[in-house]
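Thread amino acids onto this structure.
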């Protein structure tokens, strides 16, 4: 018997991707998956891609989850904290929701509302010193999907003093799975197909998380809904602080990062190349007119942006190689 793992909120898109990764993980044994409305249904009735995984959704309660060694919480924002507080201290938890990402309680109230539950270890191993912190933690807050993409593109430039943290502009497009599985009119295929539309302009909830993780002090972020199921493409620009080679900064920062790939010069990221993998593809340059630094990043919002990132964190928490059960390669065509 390996490490016993449970997934709470496993009926959603991120939960389904977690189940898929865990079903093939060599060290984690998936023993429990919980849901609300789908409790009592077999997994493959909700996630047909998991045909052959012999589990039935249980109710989401602390008693059901407490027998696991590791619990992933794939619940809506604001629902993880109360459940996590009722789990035994020895159970290790990775929260895919936002409840424990932010250090600043005022930022939580401003962007999410309600009481702040406190910050856990931030789950992005590629940040300096973060692998070691995650490895010694029993509670880890997974990144947001947009945040993971933008932080990986921006953090090394600010840390190296290469980019002005007060003037960062980001435009990022995401697939519809980033909005969750609940039925919403604006996410119907007939509404999304052939269309690009901005949303939460100037007030997206990942802004304080991105600023916290990168050290940015001025951030303008415009998210865009793209007509595809999954994937994020972010274009990050910032003013340089001097003569800067952004590719050299990124190459040094991610020299030992198995899931972050700086593409050969002249080759720009695209979302399809990261589909189904846990990788982030980066390219960087300098705008010849404005002189601004440009970094373009692509990842799978359900992979490195959610479930894959969560498994990477869990691997570190149990002393496993962070690549265990994960692939950096996308699926094509």
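Threaded sequence (333 positions):
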């Amino acid at each position: 018997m390996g490490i016993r793992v449970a997934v709470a909120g496993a009926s959603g898109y991120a939960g389904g991707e977690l189940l898929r990764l865990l079903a093939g993980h060599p060290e984690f044994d998936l023993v429990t998956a919980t849901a609300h409305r789908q409790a009592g249904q077999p997994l493959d009735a909700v996630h047909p891609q998991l045909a052959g995984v012999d589990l039935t959704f249980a109710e989401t309660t602390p008693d059901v989850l407490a027998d696991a060694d590791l619990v992933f919480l794939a619940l809506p924002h604001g629902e993880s904290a109360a459940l996590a507080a009722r789990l035994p201290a020895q159970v290790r938890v990775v929260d895919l929701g936002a409840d424990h990402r932010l250090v600043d309680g005022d930022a939580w109230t401003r962007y999410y509302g309600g009481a702040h539950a406190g910050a856990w270890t931030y789950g992005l191993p590629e940040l300096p010193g973060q692998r070691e912190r995650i490895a010694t933690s029993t509670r880890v807050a997974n990144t947001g999907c947009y945040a993971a993409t933008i932080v990986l593109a921006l953090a090394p430039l600010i840390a190296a003093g290469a980019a002005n943290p007060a003037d960062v502009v980001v435009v990022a497009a995401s697939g519809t799975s980033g909005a969750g599985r609940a039925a919403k009119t604006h996410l119907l295929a007939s509404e999304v197909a052939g269309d690009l539309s901005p949303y939460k302009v100037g007030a997206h909830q990942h802004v304080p998380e991105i600023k916290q993780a990168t050290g940015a002090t001025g951030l303008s972020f415009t998210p865009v809904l793209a007509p595809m199921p999954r994937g994020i493409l972010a274009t990050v620009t910032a003013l340089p602080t001097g003569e800067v080679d952004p590719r050299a900064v990124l190459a040094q920062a991610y020299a030992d990062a198995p899931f972050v790939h700086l593409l050969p010069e002249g080759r720009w990221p695209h979302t399809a190349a990261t589909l189904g993998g846990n990788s982030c593809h980066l390219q960087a340059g300098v705008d010849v007119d404005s002189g601004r630094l440009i970094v373009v990043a692509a990842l799978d919002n359900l992979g490195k942006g959610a479930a894959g990132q969560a498994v990477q964190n869990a691997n570190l928490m149990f002393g496993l190689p962070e690549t265990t059960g994960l692939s950096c390669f996308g699926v094509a065509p």
